[in-house]
């Protein structure tokens, strides 16, 4: 089997003018916490052929991208055939350039109508999501093999845990007010504004995908995944279906029983409790960016003098190998690295990150772990959600005024590994 080596994007972050999505509404609120709106993003919607050609020229053979639900179904129950035709062209362009498409059905952004219907805490969303995925499979399924239903299905639970930690620090006065207090206030303001924007009469927020998730919402998302998986397989039995999870390399700060227990608890919440829902999946998408060191008091700050990325993650490409090995202890299916990357203005550090991360992947394969692909995040310097365009994860720089593409050395370095995994 050919090792899939490529890169990844998310529709809302690169396509531009995703006007029917919940994120578009949030970006344009009066009191938004987004530093800037997405607008035309990287104009990938119109320039996908150029971008796919750049991947081919670099030597890559795979591309993970998302189909935007808000484009396909801009109104509940009304599907847009023109948008299906658009994504058909994207898929055909991949095949014409020898690129294996890895399709993601939901990458954070949702149709705004879904949020007015209760969003990702509503029982009805399971059926809504299944119907959308089935429609796409019926119309486009013959053009792809790998499909990831939901990107980082555990992100809402991770967000809830982060907010809980911040609140706890506030209550104990053990917090850097100048940094963290505004974040918390801005988050709560955004949720209040989101609720008003979607005109919901109940609930603490509008239940977007990146809201703080309840245990019910967590279960609902996994049920939505299962329903979509089964519906897509029924239409196209050849499909390999999975989802992706955001996973950290969890390391114990010491060997005390309490610390070990804390590490085990974090892994249970981040990964293990999802295993019953994914045991029938064909693959699992692993998404890793860094490690977390855990002590008796929980997650610690990065070590003093540690190199931090633009996102304030610790620069730690070794984390990927550790996470792959840990996941393989419990999940016995095919593994794809669906995201791994670094936000930095220094492309040489990105090159070194890629080299270290891929060395770890090769070690895992040598030990018999079924890793079948690596997708680097991201193809383009894109719209990084609330951070706007200030975070540069891309293998290709984009001039925000002209949309001209400037491939970085990291793109060709990544492509050079195609022969090494052959």
Task: Characterise the protein shown here.
- An eight-stranded parallel beta barrel has the order 1-2-3-4-5-7-10-11, surrounded by four helices. Strands 6-8-9 form a three-stranded mixed β-sheet. A two-stranded antiparallel ribbon has the order 12-13.
- It contains 15 helices and 13 strands.
- By secondary structure, the chain is α/β, with parallel strands linked by helices.
- It has a single domain, classed as Alpha-Beta Barrel (TIM Barrel), CATH 3.20.20.80.
Strand order within the widest beta sheet: 1-2-3-4-5-7-10-11
The count of DSSP E runs of length 2 or more, i.e. the number of strands, is 13
Outline: globular
Q: Portion of residues in helices?
A: 40-55%
Rounded mean pLDDT is 92
CATH superfamily descriptor:
Glycosidases
* Class based on secondary structure composition and strand pairing: alpha/beta
Cα distance spanning the termini: 9 Å
How many domains comprise the coordinates?
1
Give the ordered list of helices and strands: EHHHEHHEHHEHHHEEHHEEEHEHEEEH
Strand percent estimate: 15-25%
CATH class: Alpha Beta
**How does the major sheet shape up?**
8 strands, parallel, barrel
Q: So how many helices?
A: 15
Low-confidence stretches: 174-188, 200-204
GO molecular function: beta-glucosidase activity
Keywords: Glycosidase, Hydrolase
Protein name: Beta-glucosidase
Family: Belongs to the glycosyl hydrolase 1 family.
């Amino acid at each position: 089997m050919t090792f899939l080596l490529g890169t990844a994007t998310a529709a809302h972050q690169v396509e531009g003018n995703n006007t029917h999505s919940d994120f578009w509404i949030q970006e344009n609120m009066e009191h938004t916490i987004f530093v800037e709106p997405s607008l035309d993003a990287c104009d990938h919607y119109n320039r996908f052929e150029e971008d796919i050609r750049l991947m081919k020229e670099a030597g890559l053979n795979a591309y993970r991208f998302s189909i935007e639900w808000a484009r396909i179904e801009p109104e509940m129950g009304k599907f847009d055939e023109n948008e299906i035709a658009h994504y058909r062209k994207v898929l055909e362009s991949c095949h014409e350039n020898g690129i294996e498409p890895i399709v993601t059905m939901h990458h954070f952004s949702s149709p705004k109508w879904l949020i007015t219907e209760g969003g990702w805490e509503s029982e009805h969303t399971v059926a809504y999501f299944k119907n959308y995925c089935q429609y796409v499979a019926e119309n486009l399924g013959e053009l792809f093999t790998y499909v990831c239903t939901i990107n980082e299905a555990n992100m809402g639970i991770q967000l809830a845990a982060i907010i809980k930690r911040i609140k706890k620090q506030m209550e104990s006065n053990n917090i850097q007010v100048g940094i963290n207090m505004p974040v918390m206030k801005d988050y709560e303001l955004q949720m209040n504004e989101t609720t008003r924007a979607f005109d919901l009469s109940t609930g603490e927020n509008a239940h977007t995908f990146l809201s703080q998730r309840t245990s019910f919402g967590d279960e609902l998302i996994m049920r939505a995944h299962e329903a979509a998986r089964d519906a897509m397989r029924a239409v196209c039995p050849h499909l390999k279906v999975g989802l992706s999870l955001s996973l950290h390399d969890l390391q114990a700060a010491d060997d005390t029983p309490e610390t070990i227990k804390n590490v085990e608890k974090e892994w249970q919440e981040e990964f293990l409790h999802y295993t019953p829902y994914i045991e029938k999946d064909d693959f699992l998408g692993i998404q890793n960016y860094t490690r977390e060191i855990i002590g008796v008091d929980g997650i610690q700050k990065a070590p003093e003098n540690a190199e931090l990325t633009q996102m304030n993650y610790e620069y730690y490409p070794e984390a990927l190998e550790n996470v792959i090995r840990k996941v393989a202890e419990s999940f016995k299916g095919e593994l794809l690295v669906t995201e791994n990357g670094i936000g930095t203005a220094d492309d040489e550090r990105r090159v070194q990150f890629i080299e270290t991360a891929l060395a770890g992947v090769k070690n895992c394969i040598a030990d018999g772990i079924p890793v079948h692909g690596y997708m680097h995040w991201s193809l383009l310097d894109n719209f990084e959600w609330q951070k706007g365009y200030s975070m540069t994860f891309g293998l290709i720089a984009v001039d925000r005024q002209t949309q001209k593409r400037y491939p970085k050395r990291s793109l060709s370095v990544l492509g050079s590994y195609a022969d090494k995994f052959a």
